Amino acid sequence: MTAINTPHKLAWYYGEPSKYSDLLNGKIIWKASILLGEGVGIRFYSNNEPRPIKHQFLIEFENHTAMGAAIQMYGGMGSFLDGELDLFGHAGGYKTILCKNTVNKPCPACGTIIKKEAYIGGSIYYCEKCQKL
C-alpha cells in the first residue's frame, strides 16, 4: 500500500497518509474501508500490467493485482480499519462512537444517552436525538 507517491496540492487525505502502509501492509484484512471522493480516478491493474509511475494511492493485493487512484483535479482519499479490535484482538487504535463501549454514555454530538437494541440477530447502537426515524 502506497499513499502520496506523487504529491498533489489538491489531494486531501483522511488521517495521516504516511501511516496507511503501517495500517495495511503485510496484514490479512477481513474488513477495511477505503474512501475515494469525487475527483479521484481509480483503476484496477491485472497481475501482468505495469503500475503507474504517478499516483496518490496504490494497493497491491496478494494475487499480484492492484488498485490505483490518482487525483484528476481535486479529490479526497482515506484508508482505515473498520472494527473494534485489531488483528491480534487489541483495541483498534481509534475511538468508536456508537458501540458496546459507548452504550449508556452521552452522545458526543448532543449529550443524549446512546441506546442498544436487538436487530436481526445482532445489536444496533444509536442516539435517539441525532438518528431519528
Gist?
The chain has 133 residues and is mainly beta. The chain is 4% helix and 34% strand.
Unreliably modeled segments = none
Overall geometry comes to: elongated
**Number of DSSP strands?**
9
When the domains are counted, the total is 2
Q: Give the class from helix and strand content and strand pairing.
A: mainly beta
Mean pLDDT score? 81
The helix content is under 10%
Radius of gyration: 18 Å
Strand order of the largest sheet: 1-5-6-4
Main sheet characteristics: 4 strands, antiparallel
Total of DSSP H or I helical runs spanning 4+ residues: 1
- Bin the strand percentage: 25-35%
| Distance, first to last CA | 39 Å
SSE series: EEHEEEEEEE
Would you give an account of this structure?
The chain is built from one helix and nine strands, in the order E-E-H-E-E-E-E-E-E-E. It has a four-stranded antiparallel β-sheet with strand order 1-5-6-4, with no helix packed on it. It has a three-stranded mixed β-sheet with strand order 2-7-3. The protein has a two-stranded antiparallel sheet with strand order 8-9. The model has no long low-confidence stretch (mean pLDDT 81). It has two domains: 2-94, no CATH class; 95-133, no CATH class. The protein has one helix spanning 20-24, and strands spanning 2-3, 11-13, 32-36, 40-45, 57-60, 66-71, 75-81, 114-119, 122-127. It is 4% helix and 34% strand. Strand 5 (57-60) and strand 6 (66-71) form a beta hairpin. By secondary structure, the protein is mainly beta.
